[in-house]
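User: Hey, quick favor. My workstation is busy. Could you predict this chain's structure for me?
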Amino acid sequence: MARFVLRRLLQSCVVLLGVTLVVFLLLQLVPGDPVRVALGTRFDPQTYEALRARAGLDQPLVVQYFDYLRRALTGDLGVSFRSGQPVTSIVLARLPATLSLALTAVLFALVIAVPLGIVSAMRSGSFVDHATRVFSQFGVSVPDFWMGIMGILLFAGVLGWLPPSGYVALTEDPARWASHVALPAATVGLVTASILTRFIRSSMLEVLSEDYVRTAQAKGLRTRVVVLRHVLRNALIPVVTVVAVQLASLLGGVIVIEVLFAWPGIGRLTYDAVQARDYPVLQGAVLLVAALFLLVNLLVDILYARLDPRITVK
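Assistant: No problem, here it is.
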């Protein structure tokens, strides 16, 4: 297991290095001068040159890239062109908001998808199965921003149960945090739940047709025992992948949802950085998202190995 984890860690480091290189090169291709845009009406030649020198933009590209890597290894991601604050502090300040939204949305999705997927598979062809498949099709087909707008109109505008937008930290006031996170988490969670339900149902159906399941049923084991002990454990392996991908996508910042609900997370930060051409902040946000994505995948690989030890051998 230790060799397996070490190998995955090394692969993650290589991928992260590739991400930094691709993002750095892509930003060089964007037309326009970010320093000139950041200064706006405050532009004067001396300030312009000083800011370029402080950001290292007066150096050759190769020097800029390796200098960025060197500083990133020490946790220094540069300084924002717009605010002058350290990028590391800006990005980390937005992380709790995105984490709370992503984890709540995934939890919401699992609470809906797991029982629906299991019941749908166990009663394949029944009314419940058809209704579940309609729900899955609806969730996948309808854009999340439309569901978000409908949620705001219904629960904030008509019923007045929830605030339409805004954010309160969980540590500051848990009750107000819950009221603010409910709509965006439910919006994202419904889309995720519809995807997970389909995977859980198909995975359960595949495992239910295996010989060892029929043997367990022939031995007279109760259905609940067969499902919990033999079916669910093996059916969860592909589902774990989907959950991880969805969680990683949410950690990357659901930009539309965060902008729609004025949620101050990584997605909203990325959107603002693109608008202002604040490249250091954009690079920092992308690097953090990539690192989180790789971390989630590493944890999934370890969980895979726990669920099926043959994976470590392969």
